[in-house]
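Input/output pair, single chain:
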Amino acid sequence: MDNNFDLIVIGGGPGGYVCAIRAAQLGLKTACVESRGTLGGTCLNVGCIPSKSLLNLSENFHKAKKEFNQQGIELSGVKLNINKMMSAKEKSVQVLTKGVEYLFKKNKVTYLKGKGVIFSKNDVVVYNNDNRVSYKTKNIVIATGSQVTSLSSIKIDEKNILSSTGALSLTKVPKKLVIIGGGYIGLEMGSVWSRLGAEVTVVEYLDHITPGMDREISKEFQKILTKQGLIFKLNSKVTSVINDKDKVLVEYTDKNNDKKSKIEADKVLVSVGRKPYTEGLNLDKIGIKKDSKGRINVNGQLQTTIKNIYAIGDVIKGPMLAHKAEDEGIAVAEIIAGQAGHVNYDVIPGVIYTSPEVATVGKTEEQLKNENKSYKVGKFPFLANSRAKVNNETEGFVKILADSNTDKVLGVHIIGPHSGDMIAEMALAMEFGASSEDIARTCHAHPTHTEAIKEAALAVDKRPIHF
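Output:
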């Protein structure tokens, strides 16, 4: 094999493999290095995809056991087969990771299995067990993603004290599960195991869950999750996690009154965030600079301090989201090919795939207040939406924030059924600089959940029809 390339991408996750495919489409001779043994990165292997599989399967189980009888679908003897459920999850993962390999072959991307190390701006060495192969390249893209972070006093063993990876592969439902951290990942995993029968307690350092989310949505979300059975200990600092054979003892302090408390659990999930994964790349030796949080510094063209070495995804600043990494991957490939790649960081949606889903794009109310921006608010509840009503999915609402002077949509926040899909309309609207009036005057099909978006847009100008 010819070991000379136009581009070598290090990392085969959503950012890396998308970058490699787009570069190959643009005529660049491209290779992608991945050490995991399967493509797709954290997202496909131990993140987005397996967690969404379990969220879907656990919701089906919950509905069959708790809700269908009330709706005239009478079932008896509904049982959980956790092994079959995990097998179904694994099958989904395998199909998708193999799909990425197929896309590489289709687009003539060379797949290099092993650990990529950068030795100079044009030299990458791939280590695979005892093999060491050197490659020359005109450009390099670092797309090595992120890894789980923990608290300094907690040792994750993936048996009793789990990361999100371990929480995706439990072989039986724990009676009591404690989740340290009230962010996206912890709440999704908490929802899964709560539906399957666990008593779930979330211990969060702040006085609210989902940090960074619009506070009104966060409060409503916590209210709904509490109704579903999750227990929340907010403003609580975890002081120790003691692993004692079959049990784990979590000690925490209430920050309001310094009161110390303990919870005994079968399993503990540590979900306090992720950090960039750049170990072993040789970055310091070749002069690539990082910030205080370990993220690689890049300019507006996603170039590092070495101009032909680029970085994308979780290793650089910004939300650690697969679709953000994908957009950056496409942008970098186009920039290297001499085109004008671009990412609009103001319009990157975020979704929590619980039931109901939570979706957001653009600014929160808190951000607009901090920026002294004058804005209007339009809200519409799913309780008043006919499709949500007949489907018995009435929790939550749509909230649109628009500029008081220009009416331009600045942010949209949805908690309710199918909001992860519905947010796409608002991301597109914001990408084109739409006003709330534009959305209000766009015909939406009836009866659909999306009519709640139209009504919220009407409500910006205090003229909703159905509420």
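The domain at 4-148+275-343 is CATH 3.50.50.60 (FAD/NAD(P)-binding domain). DSSP finds 14 helices and 22 strands in the chain.
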